[in-house]
Write a structure and sequence with these properties.
Distance between the termini of chain A: 81 Å
Number of strands of chain A: 6
Distance between the termini of chain B: 142 Å
Strand content of chain B: under 5%
Shape of chain A: globular
Order of helices and strands of chain A: HEHHEHEEEEH
Number of helices of chain B: 4
Order of helices and strands of chain B: HHHH
Oligomer: heterodimer
Largest sheet of chain A: 6 strands, antiparallel
Structural class of chain B: mainly alpha
Strand order of the largest sheet of chain A: 1-2-6-5-4-3
Number of strands of chain B: 0
Helix content of chain A: 25-40%
Helix content of chain B: over 70%
């Protein structure tokens, strides 16, 4: 009897241990990116998005199911628990330091996060990294770091997300394209002026 | 029976009305015109309710109006928050989708140039 109890206890501890080692929970998939806010003072344009679960639920109520773009967004945010974006566009090069980016990368070195894509272009000095955290077969966290000489963007999405659906969203919104694809001519605004 | 009682009985004895009395009464009533109360008079008549009741009605009305106004502003605030959240969601997803495609294109471009390296 005592042996059976002992075995049960060992099994329970093992299960708890395995669960503890499992990929990140939704809460852990959230990164601390607020310290990047200091860059806002140097930036020409800033995008700052902080949407927790309650705000996402509220937004979902205002997204129309009859409008295709909003319906897709509504479907996509159904499983999300947080969306956090910091995007800065600068007037000049080197307005942010590599330490700013490395501080994000350090948080992504914890178990559970995997670097899915890493693209570094010496020609354009563009650096894009896509990190995912998975739970089973589902992606429960996504982080994108896009670092360019005059632009830094960090996106942290917490919750179950379908990358195919997300990638298909671009250009379907009423928001005009940002014109940031590699090879595209830079925009005319002063934030992305070509180098002199 | 004393004389007073006798006089009272005599005075209060039932008498039949004179002929045509009923007709006279009815015709006089018909000729009299009752002045109709005006609008203001009727409205003022409605206000002649006890003061405590008037106070109660006033307080209830004020309470209902306050609740209504507060509810309206709360609804407006919630709507504004919802619209702002919706805009943020659309913007965030747009940026995320853009960057994801940027990464995909870069990977595909690199793969097309030198497939053996990747």
């Amino acid at each position: 009897m005592a042996l059976a109890n002992c075995i049960k206890m060992i099994l329970l501890v093992t299960v708890l241990f395995i669960l503890g080692l499992n990929p990140l929970s939704a809460q852990e998939a959230r990164l601390k990116i607020s310290y990047l806010d200091k860059l806002a003072a140097k930036a020409d344009q800033t995008v700052d998005v902080n949407l927790d679960a309650s705000l996402l639920q509220l937004a979902a109520k205002f997204l129309s199911s009859s409008k295709p773009d909003e319906a897709k967004a509504k479907e996509l945010i159904g499983g999300l628990k947080g969306v956090y974006v910091r995007s800065f566009e600068f007037d000049s090069d080197d307005a942010y330091s590599s330490e700013d980016v490395n501080a994000i990368r350090t948080q992504l070195q914890t178990p559970g996060w995997v670097r899915m894509v890493g693209v570094r272009s010496k020609h354009n000095k563009e650096n894009i990294e896509v990190f995912t955290s998975t739970q089973g077969e589902k992606i429960n966290g996504l982080t994108i770091i896009s670092a360019e000489p005059r632009e830094l963007t960090v996106i942290n999405i917490v919750g179950t997300i379908d990358l195919d659906k997300l990638s298909r969203l671009e250009g379907q919104f009423g928001i005009p394209k940002m014109g940031l694809e590699p090879g595209e001519p830079p925009r005319k605004d002063k934030a992305t002026k070509p180098k002199e | 029976m004393n004389p007073l009682e006798e006089r009272l009985i005599e005075s209060l004895r039932r008498k039949d009305p004179s002929p045509g009395f009923e007709q006279k009464v009815l015709s006089r009533i018909a000729t009299q015109t009752v002045p109709r109360a005006g609008l203001w008079q009727r409205m003022l008549t409605g206000l002649t309710i006890p003061r405590y009741r008037l106070t109660t009605v006033g307080l209830t009305a004020a309470l209902l109006i306050s609740v209504g106004v507060a509810g309206y502003y709360q609804e407006q605030r919630k709507r504004a928050e919802g619209e702002a959240a919706k805009s943020q969601v659309m913007l965030a997803l747009q940026i995320a989708s853009n960057r994801l495609n940027q990464a995909q294109k870069a990977v595909l471009g690199r793969g097309n140039r030198s497939p053996s390296r990747d």
